[in-house]
Protein: Protein nirF
Organism: Zoogloea dura
Amino acid sequence: MRARLFAPLLALGLVACASAPPPAITSGSAPELRGTGDLGVVIERAAGRVQVVEHSHDSRLGTVEGLGDLSHAHVAFSRDGRYAYVFGRDGGLTKVDLLTRRIDRRIVQAGNSIGGSVSQDGRLVVAQNYEPGGIKAFDADTLALLADVPAEYAPGKFSRVVGLADVSGQRFVYALFDADEIRITDFSNPRQPVTTRFPAGRQPYDGLVTPDGRYFIAGLFGEDGLSLLDLWQPQTGVRRILAGYGKGEEKLPVFKMPHLRGWAMAGGQAWLPAIGRHEVLVADTRSWAESARIPVKGQPVFVMARPDGRQVWVNFAFPDNEWVQVIDTLEKRVVHTFSPGKAVLHMEFTPRGEAVWLSSRDSNRISVVDTASFALRRELPADAPSGIFFTARGQRIGF
Amino acid sequence: MRARLFAPLLALGLVACASAPPPAITSGSAPELRGTGDLGVVIERAAGRVQVVEHSHDSRLGTVEGLGDLSHAHVAFSRDGRYAYVFGRDGGLTKVDLLTRRIDRRIVQAGNSIGGSVSQDGRLVVAQNYEPGGIKAFDADTLALLADVPAEYAPGKFSRVVGLADVSGQRFVYALFDADEIRITDFSNPRQPVTTRFPAGRQPYDGLVTPDGRYFIAGLFGEDGLSLLDLWQPQTGVRRILAGYGKGEEKLPVFKMPHLRGWAMAGGQAWLPAIGRHEVLVADTRSWAESARIPVKGQPVFVMARPDGRQVWVNFAFPDNEWVQVIDTLEKRVVHTFSPGKAVLHMEFTPRGEAVWLSSRDSNRISVVDTASFALRRELPADAPSGIFFTARGQRIGF
């Protein structure tokens, strides 16, 4: 957690170079005419490189280098599925052409960044930054800066931004760790964004929106519980839910804060990683009251639903990070436990959920697993892989 | 309704010609390297032709001819988004390459067909047929026949198949109009499919699955109410829900049976076209009990949720088929009424819902409407357009 929020800030300031020449690619051949619905990107974090992959035949198509510090990289996609927007820790924002496997554009837009999203209409790319604290909107084609929205909460004081998510109406919702706030910025007029502020509770450290884009939920580092904002009627304000969610009075050691992005909504229930506990919490999405706790092998990091909601897959913090468990959401119990490799950092389901890709950083591989039989379909070599992102995200809300 | 179920059967029998030469295209240029996530197909029913369109800039890219009788055409997509599978009324199944805008393969697989779907893993295309009654599975690449599953319900008697939907585990669920049955066929071994049968109630005329693929719901022509099958635990059998759904004792005139495919799930509620009444019914998706009725302008045909669930759009049967209404699902009332043209047959939302495309058959045009402002974004000419289908369907369950 500390490493995530308080990584050394490289005080590079803002260096925008929208017309930087594309670096050479390291591999690849003449661009092939092909669909883009089955493409994806695997982050090779140490090498500053991404693999371009496809999940129809589970293969690697090529690599693209020169993307900078990818230690907390996030990827979003253009609405046509051709381009990946790769957000690097060092503030780099790179538009990668998945068909030619070249860098189309690259800018360094901040000193420390943790991700970004694409607007509902696909025309804006918005980055969330720690340094300088705030969000910035760019033209999705050219990466030209359209709007800078500093997260200023007191004169000259700027908060780190976490949990950015795109929602309908060209809006983006996010939380301010240092300012205990949730904000909604509306980019309907991209050059004149309008921001609304809400009190969030103490130190929101991450956030997510439900798959329909209706609810924004922020996890709190400074107190127990979560903050819920109904984006369909934000005027009703933020309310506290699941007061038992958090470290509580026992002050459990927390090896890694869970990623809220991974929360699963399935069967009218939300499946949440408990903080510090070896449990997955289940909450009713109508009342937001806790409905069950499921014991698991370690401290959960990602808790992700298979797209049909029948299974929830869980990975864990150190020292249990070689393990993955599968929960059957109907039976509400673990039905499968296995180790795809060492230091399992991320999982990504194929769009309709027949397979899942898992990255094992310390085993230098990607494992592709059949979600019905749990059989290993394929292993692919990768250099310390972390995030895996498929283009179908570009067709969905809140990614 | 009668026209839909009892159209003249062309007793062609099975004519498979998987290697038919591709007809010439009528327009188009050299294939362009591009993403496929924003592509779509518009059916020009009278001309046996489709338009290939894109929704990033709302334009027509070209046309493909020679697809036969498209009077009740349905379209499914390959998992990579490159190919459209067009199911014609005359049993034609055509694989259209959206990038080259040519026919890649074409077979005539039945005498009378009303649609089909693609398996979860993308490797099978399954057609639902009236004549000969049953379903057939084809290799998605080659269109080679892999399995023929006749809907035989008594010696030598074959039912028309309706409501086919793909669900997880290579399964397809569908209903038999003439046999009062729901069936699930599992193609895990494509050449040795396994079929399970359930009693469905009288004359199921259409069906759908919920977006998570869990529930199959069949509308009944022969009695009031709907039949619900929980595909996560099919052994619990079919149960009757919404006994008030149907024509009831008044025997209202029904100008066109609603399409169940259009049902909307939003905010934990299902939004259903009432049969014969000028109403949209709202049912709670936990109890499946009716929770509200919303008066609308005519007999609803398609009732479709914007992808975020905040709006439900409704078109109508004759004589109100020039109108479209928009329901706000939070306020549960009509908030907008307009006429995009004459004989509005279909609607398709962009994947994240910022726009909707509407086909007006008798005005020979497609209207693209902004769903936030209701402003007309663009009109495109089309020859008696009916169905509109975007490639994002290929990434979703139950399409």
